[in-house]
Design a protein that fits this description.
Elements: E1 6-14, H1 30-42, E2 47-55, E3 59-60, E4 68-69, E5 77-81, H2 82-88, H3 93-97, E6 103-106, E7 114-117, E8 125-129, E9 132-133, E10 155-160, H4 164-167, E11 174-179, E12 192-200, E13 205-215, E14 221-231, E15 234-236, E16 239-241, E17 246-259, E18 262-277, E19 289-304, E20 310-328, E21 332-350, E22 356-374, E23 381-396, E24 399-414, E25 429-443, E26 448-459, H5 463-467, E27 469-472, E28 477-480, E29 488-500, E30 504-527, E31 533-554, E32 559-572, E33 577-578, E34 586-593, E35 598-607, E36 623-636, E37 639-648, E38 672-680
Parallel strand pairs: 8-11, 28-31
Antiparallel strand pairs: 1-2, 3-4, 5-10, 6-7, 8-9, 10-11, 12-13, 12-38, 13-14, 14-17, 15-16, 17-18, 18-19, 19-20, 20-21, 21-22, 22-23, 23-24, 24-25, 25-26, 26-29, 27-28, 29-30, 30-31, 31-32, 32-33, 32-34, 34-35, 35-36, 36-37, 37-38
Amino acid sequence: MMMSRRSYILFLLLGITLAGVPAGAAGSPPVAQQAAHEQQAADTVEVASEVAAITLPDIVVTAVLSPTAVSEAIRPSAVFSDETLQRHLAGTLAQTVESVPGVTVTSMGPGTSQPVIRGLSGDRILVLEDGQRVGDVLSSGPDHASAVTTSSAQRIDVIRGPSAILYGSNALGGVINVIRDEVPRTVPGRATGFTSLQGQGATRGIGGSSQLTVGVTENIPLRVEVSKREGGDLRTPIGRLVGTQTDVRSVAAGTSWVDDWGYAGGSFRYFANDYGIPGGFVGGHTNAVRTEQERAAGRLRSVIRPGHGLEAIEVDAGYTWYRHHEMEPPDILGAQYDREIVSGEARARHAGWGPFASGAVGARVSWEDFGFAGALYTPNSRRRTQAAYLLEEIRLDPVRVEAGLRYDRVELEPEEEDASSDIGHIRARSFDAVSGSLGALLPVTGQFTLGASVGRAFRTPDVHELYSEGPHLAANSYDVGNPSLETEKGLGIDVFGRVTGQRVSAEATWFRNTIAGYIFPQATGRLSRVRLPIYQFVGEDAVLTGFESQLEWSVPAGFRLEAAASYVRGTIRATDEPLPFMPPLQGRVAIGYSPVNWFVEAETRMASSQERTGRFEDPTDGYAVFGFSGGVRFTFAGRPHVLTLHLDNIGNTEYRRHLSRVKEIMPEAGRSLSVTYRVVY
């Protein structure tokens, strides 16, 4: 859930004891004043320090031209940083951000949690690292895990709604950006960084990460990072979800040359994840599947600040290699996904010029190779993308307007064409699309703001949706593609009201997302020759409508009340049938007490029953789950430390998420205690 960021800083309370200075020395005779001054010079000055808390505004840097306070953002946004990030930090990215209104989780176990925003998932949500696409295969199946680790993140931005201008296609639902500044932008005066440790009871998991940035010279910083996390089977109130262990490792390094003109440098990251997918149940795979992920990514980045009205010229180039194995017992390759990406982007940002407060023009190109092996029948393919865009922010006091336009061309080419395939004519496809957005922010009073935005975004069908024909064993499905699918074209409308006060902040948003050619795997109710349920990819016009609301109320004594609720209703327009896998009405209420050095919070997470289900989809009951968290902040050896505890599902309630792919056999996690420790240096 979006909350005001609390940055706990040290400030000095100077207590100067001047021995021998009599009261009223200022009015003493000159000889007495001189004696007093001499005594002051001889005395030791004692400085007492004390920890105090001040509230600073959350700053969002994703999908905007320049860092902007969340209270001034045109799109509904949330920021996780500092203590807020630590309090919500979980084993996966989706679980870390699920407290944001409109965000929920779909999974087949603790290692496969995927984010869902406003009912949209897969590659309709862009997951980024420092503004760059991750390049995994998260969108190709519900059993696929994200190749992103959150334990080393400095901050995470969550943008809800179409955000396609800066980032291109596939941003129909929103953007999640994990920010680490892997290519350092500044040279620290001394070694800086952090070390964190985390334990989680539901999986008997333990992990940690450490990051350090040093100044090699006055112009060269060096950043290094290492993290590891492992856990066992998920424990639920009725037993273990067998075969859902995880083992995640990551290392990274980055450096740059920093000067008055800007900076230029590069970074490298290696990520590996071994995790399990459950099996052994009716309608599922016979045995648990072991999945092995590997990702290596390199990046070159330069930011030049020429001045004279041109704020910055940004140049990015990246290479990503990704491999994904799904191993059947004992050691049989069930599926293999390979992916290589080479990309480049250039962007120029200008400063204020007349009514234009800021603006950007940019272009992006990428080349991708997809490889498949094992039981998958999807042909190896290539994809090429070219794009150009323009985004401007205009201040027409008191209204602030943002307008953007983008053109994309995507070309998909299978390694071999097949006109006689059972699924249709497998052939090369090309897609052209224009995206646009227009948003406005109107301050009505000093504390109340109205905002609205409309955005046209698009999404091209991926290789799996176009060309697949065969079993996806780990996902318990037989997937049938459609080579004739067209692009999804979405028209999203957001209208919101926002209150930003000293003690009360609130926001309520209504949205409507109309998507022509919405692609999804339609359950056919039939079984394949290998006894797996057949899912046929189809494109139907759909509409998703809903709301999001949140409230935060603080009182001077340190107490805080938070509440949030969200709902989305998805419908196939031609038949008026519900879209499958739509989350129900859900909410969160929390009451906390947070003085300077410690905090406690009690929360309730709720969801209603979901009766609007797609074909062959079962309804789920509603639930309410209670949790409690607390933490302490202290300084030791001159370094700030934070220790946080979170007790989830206090009552060991047996409940099932509607978006869980294994809800028929196992509920969600039972009572679980998580502990997180972090020291900053």
